[in-house]
Amino acid sequence: MPTVAHRRSIGIPVFSSAVDDHRLRRPTDVLLIVGAFLVLVPLTLLAPGPTQLDLAIAQILRELGPVWDWVWDVSYLLLAVWPLLLVVLALASRHRRRLLVDWLVAAVVAAGLALVLGRIAGTAWSASLGAVTSTAPPQVYVAARLALAASVIVAASPHLSRPFKLAGRTVLLCGGLSGVALGIAYPIGALAGFAAGLAAGATAHLLLGSPSGSLGADDVAEILGDLGLQVSDVEVAPMQTPGTSSLTAVSSDGRPLLVKVYGRDAWDSQFLASIWTALVRRGEHPHLARGRRGQVEHEAVTTLMAERAGVPVLPVVTVGESLGGDAVLVTELKGTSLVDLPPEAVDQHFLRAVWAALVGLHSLGIAHGRIDRDHLLRLGDGGAALADLGDAELAAPHDALTTDRARLLVATSLQAGHEPAVAAALAELGPDGLADLLPYLQPAVLDRSTRKRLKEGTWDLDLLRSAAAEASGAAPPPLQRLRRVTLKSTAIALAGTLFAVWLVSKLLAVDFASIAQELADANWWWLALALLLSPTVQVAYSGSTIGASPKPLRYGPVLMLQYAIQFIAVALPATAARLALEVRFFQGFGLEAAGALSIGLIDSLSGLLVQVALIALITLTALPGLTAPATTSTTSSTSSGSSAWEIVLWVLGLLVVVAVVALLIPATRRRIRALIARGRSMITSQKQSAREALTVLRRPVKVAEMLAGNFGAQLMQAVILSICLTAFGSHAHLSQLILVNTLVSLFAGFMPVPGGVGVAEAGYVAGLQAIGISSTVAISTALAFRLVTFYLPPLWGSVAMRWLHRNQYV
Fold this sequence. Notes:
The chain is α+β, with helices and mostly antiparallel strands. Helices cover 62% and strands 6% of the residues. It is built from 31 helices and 13 strands. The strands form 4 sheets. A 6-stranded mixed beta sheet has the order 1-7-8-6-5-4, with helices on both faces. A 3-stranded antiparallel beta sheet has the order 9-10-11, covered by helices on one side. A hairpin with an 8-residue loop joins β4 (231-236) and β5 (245-251). α24 (641-664) runs antiparallel to α29 (759-770) and α27 (700-727) packs across α30 (775-791).
């Protein structure tokens, strides 16, 4: 790629954004705030420190020797000097004084966060305020000066040029280390200070907006001139891609051009926008491994490959990169996009040409990745061309190619109607090729703008699916039926819990008055923290589900799926609820029922393996297990291993009785036989789909995602159990709580009881008693833990279920 110079590379500009640049409120700032709080919550649990890691890091920094003392002093001083320098630069620059409001808002939010978090951790208000100016111990939590400096630097970052951004980040890194080395904060306090500043800066961006970071027309014209391309009439293109600037121009020989610029100073927005779109949007993937230059080269090479093979695309005119770091791709702009064509222009000749272009691209093993009405062009001679191969995938899997074709069928149907679109697809693909698209004609596969049309009710996907099925001679695949949560199922769950608590309390000779008193004396701040952390369990489970799927999935919808599973788990046993909803969810992405069922089984199996591995690890090593006593600040009452085993035996006996009674009922026996026969028939008739789903077991990255997700979920549940136990004045080693939680989860998962109701409560009481927790505290902790992890999550799980229905994922 050629590199050229232009005036933006002369000197070091301070500000990258134009004075009159419009401001945006970016969803990526929400991502930063959520990430910061996910860091702050566990840090506050460990605060004010020191942990063993804190002591080790502080010792290493102190042992570097006196020669480093002046480095630490200067670095810590820069935490105060650099924000002041930014203030001076804003005051000295014309029309930049409004930025002072942004930085003031960020600093106020950071100060408030630091004071509140410090107070929760036991740091006095005066100590937190004094740490802003102090350069000596004692250590405080949060590192207040670092929090204030980080807030201003983060708030200023979108407005500054890249050298000043990097300088600010260097100041933060060195300042955080110097605070630890000087004994002003432990590493836990320094990390919390940076997270608080990050959250404060992102909050200021959400409240006041941040610059778009796009280049002006004059800058783009000058860059193109340095590349040897003289242009005129440079204007912002109607359609923009997040993280880039798209402009139109006219070359000196009169050719219309499309200019895509990946600005150096907009790299942060490109990176975060890529993560955000991968989380919440369909059909978009993160480009975390490719920088600005890599993205431009990828699109240019893919376009040239397609053009060389005779696929009609927009020809590449030039690519380049300025010394300032702005990567540019220029293509010839010709034709009219499908969305702007009048109905009479969308004839069979054009539709056949569009399909021929896409099939030609697929014959090279390249998936387009952005097939929609904006990227399909009609040329002057009535032919077609494909635009924007920025998301094209080389050596694409069958799923990506079929998704392209399904989107093309939908895009042409939107513009020309069902019958002409299906006729053109049938002519190019044949009956078998058209039948392959039927499972993919689901809302979850479509792009965002098309889904909006579906929501508005101006177009019917079911009619298109029926027309395609009729033309191909194949029947559309049936969707998995979902069982609804009813008042009856909820009442049964609550009754089961009350019965379990009553039975356990009788066995342990604990009256309800003692339990009520224990609950009244609990530290409700700790219970509130446990409730706040409860949704993070599904954050980990989502990673496991993505790992079990052979299809690329966006994280956001999968997370909503996990929350929805918590909602329907009230009515169905946990494993059954998970499988039923996941089958319906994956069917929306084009998988047949057997493949979707296989994904759910693989996901559940990986969870089982993690549970067994954790039990074996703790049992066979020196980690504290069920035999090590826990500590408690409450009076023990009837705490013995025998009573714990007595609870387990009673629960097992009741379950055996329930199972025997259920099997004696003819209707129940027939239902069980029918379920087994239907599952066996489904897998037998769709072996190929199930075999494709099993390919994830041969991919180490996928296996690692599944194991890491399930391990994270088990670990997070044990942390929440620890917090609930702390609320009642007792403590236990984390390995003990991991063992208790894993054993109960494993045991309750095999029981045919919705959500393990009654079984789980009794299991947690027995497990906590086995590690030495008193009876009253064990019962209270089990109730509190189940409340925050099972009975309250359906509140936001119902919202997630409605979201999935509204967006037609299930």
